[in-house]
Prior knowledge:
Blueprint: H1 21-95, H2 103-110, H3 124-132, H4 140-175, H5 180-187, H6 192-199, H7 210-252
Amino acid sequence: xxxxxxxxxxxxxxxRGRKKWxxxxxxxxxxxLAVTAGFFVENQREHYIEHLRARQYALSLADDxxxxxxxFRRLRELYALNVQKADILSYLIKNKSLSRIPGGTLYxxxxxxxxxxxxTFHDATIxxxxxxxxxxxxxxxxxxxxxxxxxxxxxxxxxxxxxLYFSRIAREMMYEIFDxxxxxxxxNLSNASxxxxxxxxxxxxxxxxxxxxxxxxxxxxxRKEAWEYRTQEIIVPxxxxxxxxxxEITEQYHxx
Length: 256
């Protein structure tokens, strides 16, 4: 009996369930694009939020700096006035004996060391930036400028503490020389004619001992030198740092 073996021919539909490698490649590529696009969008969103926060900080810091620069100008004016008064008193001491200087003159010009001109810095924004670590929102240049201004402002605050100390020493000296009621009268002088009349008055001191008076006048001269140094070496550089920082913030964040 003859057996016939049937030959097997390739079924064109036998591999229909398998996909070509290009299909998997395109699936992977599309998935890769989706993940990459999502990452890019999220990164852009985070960058946008950080930019908004940086601008908010910049606006707040600009307001603080505007207030500080106004206070700087006022402080420089007060120091300049104190130096001018100290110069007048120093000239009188060098060219006249104490007995020939009217008591009103000593009361008026001696009053400059009784008060301390304290500048309060508006540093809430800078402190918030430092404590929160959000200085990173700004460029490296701005970070350096902010840090430098913060350093200079803290130096002024420290020196103001020293001035308070020396002011207490000066007041202790004044208690031995000047009458308290007359010192209060000096505080109330406002216009030029009242001041001119007052400094010509022969107002008595509470002591005739020239030694404490000389010591007090020497203290005024010392304070004058301190005011001049502080103005030129500390206040002016800090003021310039504030102006430069304000200009840079205004330019980078287009603040009007």
